[in-house]
Amino acid sequence: MYCKGSVVRSTLAFVRAERGEAAAAQLLESLPAQTRRRLTAAEPTEELPLAFVRELWQAVDALLGASDPRWSERAGAFSIESAGVQFYGGILKKSNPTEFLTQSVSLFRLFYRPGDMEVVFAEPGAAVLRLVGFDAGSRLFCQRQTGGLRLALALAGGMAANARHVRCVAEGDAFCEWELAWQAG
Asked: How many CA atoms lie within 13 A of 93 on its CB side?
C-alpha cells in the first residue's frame, strides 16, 4: 500500500494549523528517526509506503486523539480544502456530486495505490462508495476519507453533504463502505 507525499504534508499542515509549529516539531521528534527522515523529505508526488504514514497518523492520534477523537475526519477535510482544491480543483468542482463521483478520473487513485473507490449505488442525492483493492488497516484512514468525502461532495455542489462510514475492514467487515447523501444545490 502506498500514498503520495502530499498526504504527509497535509497531515503536518493540519497539525500546524491546530496546534502550532512547536507541536508539529514535537510530533516529528516522537517518530523513529528513519520514519521522520522519510516523511520530512517526501515530495508531494512521491509515493511512500503507507506504513510510514500510519506511523505519522498514530503519532497525531496520540497528540490530538484524547481531546479530539475525530481529528482525522477534520484532517481529511483540511487536506481536500487546501491541497486538494489547489491541485485538483477541476476534479472536485463539478456541477453536482454525481458528476464528481462518476467521472473517469479517480481522486482516490491520485493519492493512494493500489485500489480505488467504486460507486456501487447512485441516485440523485445519494450514493454508496466501496473501497476495493486497498487495505489501509487503520480507522484513522477511514475517518480521513469520511471527512474528505464530505467536503468533496460540498465542493461538487452538494448542499447539506454527509458521508458516513458504514462498513469497515478494521472492524471485521469484508470491505470499507461509505454512504453519501446531499441535497441539490
From this structure: 8
